[in-house]
Amino acid sequence: MKNEIAFKDMTPKQAKEYFEQYTGQIEIHLKNLKNEVCSEVGDMNFDYSPESLIPLWSWYEKKIELEEKSEDEMLEEAKRYPEWMHAYLGQTKISLQTLRYCLEVALYFAEVIIRNCNGKIYWGYFTRPKNRMSVNEPTLLGFKGKMDLEPRLVVLNCTRRSSKETLNTRLYDMYYIWMKYVE
To answer: Could you tell me the sign of the dihedral formed by the alpha carbons of 121, 124, 125, 129, in that order?
Structure first.
């Protein structure tokens, strides 16, 4: 949401509008993903089974691209974090094209979870408390202990790991980790 209001600063009305827009475009993103993947590798089964995450992740890992951060980006990042963390800040970032694929893969991952949980997991959002990580963001709800899953963050973290070492079951494994929290 570059140049827009941060999620944590949204009003409930803004959060609702964003949620409706976001969820209203899921099918379009999933269709784009399927078309892109199938145009490159032929017919891939997008049946929303957990097993369908394996060939999708294999395809996606080949799309992961990193690019060098500019000097300005590195300075901005250093300002946001305490000095002791500066040694952990990398010099690369995930490319914009990879982030586009990341969003679409995250939506598919979310839909695999939703469609395999008998209505227990669903898209939603929450506006309080403001200090919660995914406040006002579209997220998956219905997990034990009022946990929520932000699919974009899961896939982004998996992307970072796969940029260092590929593993075609990485997203499939995450699916089963999260299934432990379905009531």
So the answer is: negative
For residue 77, what are the contacts with CB-CB under 8 A and spacing of at least 6?
A: 69, 89
Q: Rounded to an integer, what is the distance from CA 113 to the centroid of its chain?
A: 13
* Backbone phi, psi, residue 139, to 5°: -150, 165
- What's the rounded Cα separation, in Å, for the pair 53 and 51? 5
Amino acid at 146: K
124 touches 2 (CB < 8 A)? no
Residue 70 DSSP symbol? P
Task: Round to whole Å and give the CA distance between 96 and 112.
Answer: 24
The 10s digit of each residue's pLDDT in 11-68 is 999 999 999 999 999 999 999 999 999 999 988 899 999 999 999 999 999 999 999 9
- Contact yes or no for 55/46 (Cβ under 8 A): no
Burial (Cβ within 10 Å: 0-12, 13-18, ≥19) of residue 32: middle
